[in-house]
Amino acid sequence: MNKTVKKILISLLCVFLALLLAVGSYAAYVLISYSRIEDFLSLEVSPAAEENAEIAESVRIGTTYTAVSFNIGFGAYTPDFTFFMDGGKESRAESKESVIAHVTSAAETALSLSPDFALFQETDTSSTRSHHVNERTLIADVFSSFQSVFAVNYHSAYLMYPIFEPHGKSNSGILTFSKTAISSAVRRSLPISSSLSKLLDLDRCYSVSRIPAENGKEFVLYNVHLSAYGGSDEIRAAQMNMLFSDMKTEYDKGNYCLAGGDFNHDFTGSSAVDLNGEEGAGSFDWAQPFPADLLPDGISRALDYTCGEQRPTCRNCDVPYREGNYTVIVDGFLHSANVTIEYLENVQLSFADSDHNPVAIKFSLQA
Description:
Layout: H1 3-33, E1 41-42, E2 45-46, E3 65-71, H2 96-112, E4 117-124, H3 135-142, E5 147-159, E6 168-178, E7 184-189, E8 205-212, E9 218-225, H4 233-252, E10 256-262, H5 271-276, E11 299-301, E12 314-315, E13 327-328, E14 331-336, E15 339-346, E16 359-365
Parallel strand pairs: 3-4, 9-10
Antiparallel strand pairs: 1-7, 2-5, 3-16, 4-6, 5-6, 7-8, 8-9, 10-14, 11-14, 12-13, 15-16
């Protein structure tokens, strides 16, 4: 072997070893950075920012209230946005300015529905994917006359994929607003995969906000965002059972329960087919039918849409949105039997500010 060939082989070996070291170091960084937030974590109740905001001391029995749930998609999902984990291309929002515009627009839309309670999901606080915009602050500025509770739902190390535009580091959560005083709030850590797929499904949770009722009971408000990526059938069932059990326990105490959010399941159990035809049943497998058989006595889905028909709350983001694309209902509300549903609407916005449409519900508490 001549010296030139030997030098080339040594150089190639050095390059290979350097790459191996880099990959190994990055893998170690991701694994070491991974951690879960403790269960039953107490959450701070933030006061209304608006001076002299009118915050009721308790909810009234028989009074009609409005709640809105809206997954804002971290401000990235314009109608033309596609997401790499759904089979699309993009991994980050178009720009900081675009994030600010769409998060603000989504918050203003939710406020225009005159809610007494508002639930937001995928609210980033400092993420690469949303250009480090503090979306919690943006929404709080719009809901300045409400108390609020924030729970971290997704926090990750810097993800180096896709290679040419890495998804980066994420810090995101679920944000709850109330016009009635929240006495306390906790974060419940949901079961997630114990395999490496947990790195795609970091620290799922729901928040529980307790609000006094005038009869001495409590109105228990849940903000929910369940697993979409990295969750097996067993994990999905475990998450549902945990939430259902929690609600059932509160209902058995005589408390009033309402859980809203993104369930990442076909919420009606048939919307994939109802909205897309028979071909919709097997088009995408991430939105599995909602496990209605697991619901305990006294806990139900709100499915009696006031318009009389199913309308979508979510689009698949493999392609830019056009009317006729695959859509499904994954957002909605669960309620205990002592909560009467008076109105229910999947508000149609043509996915202008998010890959989700908001859900609005009017309800009252029974004596």
